[in-house]
Amino acid sequence: MHALVVDRSHPTGLRIADVRDPEPAPNQALVRVAATSLNYGEVKYVLAGQPDGAVPGWDAAGVVERPAADGSGPAAGTPVVTVADGGAWAELRAVDTALIGTVPVGADLGAIATIPVAGASALRALQRIGALPGRRILVTGATGGVGRYAVQLAHQGGAHVVAVTGDPETHGDGLRRLGADEVITAPGELGEPVDGVVELVGGAHLVDAYARLTEHGTLVTVGHASQEDTVFPAGSFLGNEGRHNRTISTFYLLACTGLAPDLTHLAELVAQGALDPGIAWRGSWDKAAEAFDALRERRLHGKAVLDLT
Q1: Cα(29)–Cα(235) distance, rounded to whole angstroms?
Q2: 51, 171, 287, 297: which is deepest, by most CB within 10 A?
Q3: Which pairing describes strands 79-83 and 59-66: parallel, antiparallel, or unpaired?
Q4: TM spans, by residue (predicted)?
Q5: C-alpha separations of 216 from 65, 86, 137, 199 in Å
Q6: Are 44 and 295 in contact, with CB atoms under 8 Å apart?
Q7: What is the SS3 assignment for 254?
Q8: 130: closest CA among 245, 269, 277, 267?
Q9: CA distances from 203 to 27, 107, 121, 226 (A)
Q10: Which residues pair with 23 in a beta bridge?
């Protein structure tokens, strides 16, 4: 099969090469990949630690070519969306059936490919915050892949959504169309405290957002786009004066159970047009270097999708 492999002798650090087909374990299905979406974290940081010849990639959508030998998961011919720690940037992917969601027939698999890391992370973060109707939810880094999904899902869950972006003049109208009730440049601009935070920036944003949590509020830290140190001033964790029982929560997506139903649910919403995948760049995988450069340089606000077919 063909795959996008790490090759540091190549000017881009990656090239399309012939590699051996993956051999699925009994609990894995073999999926023919139609499209993969790129995440800033894997492009900016994960690639640096990959050996030459590795096939990276977290997100992929395609069709089951060979079902799992143990009888779990979808049948051959089923359109699916998948997530795993590597192997997505290839024509064939062997993936655990617990990490496969089914996709409505006829759905745009490029749009569906944006779901796994971004959509599932947003959904799991909001689940950690708890019931959403009537609550105030802050989303930092709201123009990124996870942020866009978090704004939409929180709005659909009945929350009052406050979106944070460094450029409200450019992105404010788009975020409001996704469901944001307010758009601000930093958590420090909040007029009222919030019940929950989906935090994607780190550094001062995380510190300021935590300081504006209500009693029993939860901040879920999902990303660290700023790469700044996060330093809390003395007294930040006192529980008096309306700060009782505030929580900072973290999680690792691939350690979560029950991802297959989440992926299926999100795929249905995207296929129905109820969720906007926010594709900012899309093209053939032989133009992957163009997308990688745009992501590394933070020129994309949304998802980049590579079509393999």
Answers
A1: 51
A2: 171
A3: antiparallel
A4: none
A5: 47, 37, 13, 17
A6: yes
A7: helix
A8: 245
A9: 40, 38, 20, 7
A10: none
As a dihedral over the C-alpha atoms of residue 15, residue 17, residue 20, residue 24, rounded to 10 degrees, the angle is 50
Stated length of the chain: 309
CA distance 56 to 77: 24
Neighbours of 75 (CB within 10 A): 10
Residue the block writes with tokens 């590579």:
306
Cα 134 from Cα 221, distance rounded (Å): 22
What is the C-alpha separation between 42 and 244, in angstroms, rounded?
37
The neighbour count for residue 23, using CB atoms within 10 Å, is 8
Q: Are 219 and 197 in contact (CB under 8 A)?
A: yes
pLDDT digits (tens, 9 = 90+) for 235-278: 999 999 889 999 999 999 999 999 999 999 999 999 999 999 99
Determine contact, residues 291/267, Cβ cutoff 8 Å.
Answer: no
Question: With the C-alpha atoms ordered 175, 180, 183, 186, is the resulting torsion angle positive or negative?
Answer: negative
* Tokens standing for residue 214: 């209500």
The reported pLDDT for the residue numbered 309 is 81
